[in-house]
Amino acid sequence: MNLPLLSAAFAAFAIALYVMLDGFDLGVGALLLIQSDEHLRDHMVDSITPTWDGNETWLIMAGVALLAAFPIAYSILLPAFYLPLIVMLLSLGLRGVAFEFRYQVDSHRRIWDVAFSFGSIMAALMQGLIVGGLIQGVTITANRFSGSVFDVFRPFPLVTAAAVLNGYLVLGSGWLHLKATGALRLFAERMLHRATPLFAGLAAVSCIASVFVQPGIAAAWSAHSVPLTLIVVLFFSTFLAVMAVNGGHSDILPFALALGLFGLGMSGLVLVVYPNIVPFRLPLWDAASSTLSHVFLLIGAAVVTPVVLAYSAFAYRVFRGKTPEKGWGV
Amino acid sequence: MKLDPTVVARIQFAFTVSFHIIFPTISIGLATFLAIVEGLWLKTKDAVYLQIYRFWLGIFAMSFGVGVVTGIVLSFEFGLGFARFAQIAGPAIGPMIALEVLTSFFLEAGFLGIMLFGLHRVGPKLHFFATCMVALGTLLSASWILSANSWMQTPDGVSIQNGHVAVTNWLNVIVNPSWLYRLPHMLAAAYITGSFFVAGVGAWYLLHGKHEDFGRRTVALGTAFATILIAGQVFLGDILYGTMLRYQPSKMQAAEGFWEDHSQSPAPYYWIIAPDQAHQRNRFAIGIPYLGSIWLTHSLRGQVNGLKNTPPDRQPRMVMVFYGFRIMYGMAILMFGVVITSLWLRWQGRLFTTRWFLHALLIMTPSGVIATLAGWYVAETGRQPWVIWGILRTADAVSPVPAGALLSTLIAFVCIYALFITAFLVFTFRMIRRGPELAPAHAEASGSLKNALRPQVMNNAASSHPALEEQLP
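Output (structure tokens, whole complex):
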């Protein structure tokens, strides 16, 4: 059996879940900055408080799966993205403690909310920067990172950083569209109306620019032209769909479509990067761990992941429904 | 001055991991304490237990939060600062940490929301289950991470193939020679830390004549738990000492402060030394005569092995290991004294009224944290110069990241973590000052439960759980 491929699939699954779940958390966090009403800010935070920790755990899962299954890739990529990763971790930290600490203060809650928002925005930007850096390609010599830690701060990754931040804003607004009523729901609709076209534009620029910064992209297009075309068409039609259902009767539809956007984006990336684990540089089998390490990881993942998904779904169920001012919806 | 990346990477890891371990130690202890207290509440329906639960839940939530965000940093830092270590050891420690994430982090995260905000949504029984799951998660987490760290101390179950570790037997990797002793030692340390925390805060209330019921109950519970746990810890520590003497003699040689192959006879027990590593001697040493022979060799004139038994290029820095060990051991002796006194006072019926003892409990509030940190310094600095004992030296494990980048991120870590600890301490002190009655339960203070407390949800929960209705303020 092709164990490294299964491990890579598990890591990709973890990354995809992370991006979708923490994506909306980070989006809501980023939106705090432009919400001046403290009461509404409380409700925005309330809507993500009970479940954010589980969402963020998928990030650790992805990182650790990489360490367990592809230690060579892990030891190339982490130094390569040293600076954005550290900034991301510190930002996530700031946001994480702001969840707890903002409730402890009455008079200066705004300060913690700014920290919360700043942490969310920086984390989103750094993740986008890393995606761009991965596509542009890292410099490696003999399975070690041999570039500069500043390589990632180039124009292309800066565009993808803006794209990812806007994508999270769409997800976050979609989440509020689902969970909020009244003024907050209107706020969510306004934000969706602004962020969605911006995200579409930035995504389009990223797609086109990627062909110029990375020759591997053109190769992938000629190899998988049909599925990639399909993904791109679906991707950009979904934007129109989000705009169409925004503010409509269905609370959940914009959020579900925004998740679909990220699902499509992830599958496009997987298609382009496969079969490499360090994109365009190192095939996953060349970076793989010893066989027994994959066996252990995969048995653990196969047994425990369904249970994790079950009680995570249960936690979402306990806190289901609206998170509005006057109590939980009908 | 030219900065050495190895030194900066090590300082950065030491700083972030030391900061992190404080919070899991507190939350492992408090999670189990909360589970016990909620269980007692469900059994006895005594409102004081619910009050204790709610009060400590707020502090638990904050320490858990800081523990989570500083822990995420560590799972990436293996690769950020020590890429070569990750590359070589990934096949062995990676899957263990992956299982930690799967079995423990998700369990904690999944049930933490319910534990903090869900009492009225799910009812007391299911809520108690959620508390137990969070406590179980902290225990599993400790178990996996101790397994990974113990494997670095006493690696087993692997072979080295082209410079990489390949696992040959998972059972031997996980149940490596030191894990079996180090895990209970750390768990007991966390539970002792929690006990002294709880007892110390209770003592403060009794000293100020506030919240007497709460204070008495927590002092009684805290000292009782501490008494049982410290009795166990004495044995666990002794067994672990013997194990480490067998597997890592250089660590224990450094911990006792002797240099010569064999110490003088009778050997003193040193408390203060000024080691001179370059010349392999102590500039001076102050100790208690005979005690070294008695404690370490269980005879009146026995000799203790010194660090010169280990070649200089394989020696740890004595000053770190020695003082780590002395601080941990000194704290343990003080804690032992406190619990013995508590037994005597309890028997005399003066546990809650003896002011000097309550003062002592108050001073000892952070003793568990200090002892645990010192103990980890023994474990980690005593393993040097190895990062994986006998397999990989720390100096060879560092990432290809320039020292300047490492230094600037270290400064960023120090600044942000300083903010975290300041906020944590300020809010913890404020919660303690406000007291268990005045302070709204954490769950209520936050919006989520405020929303959950919609009248009909409340009524539903309360009517189906009469016990809850009585307890609610």
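The domain at 3-318 of chain A is CATH 1.20.1630 (Formate dehydrogenase/DMSO reductase fold).
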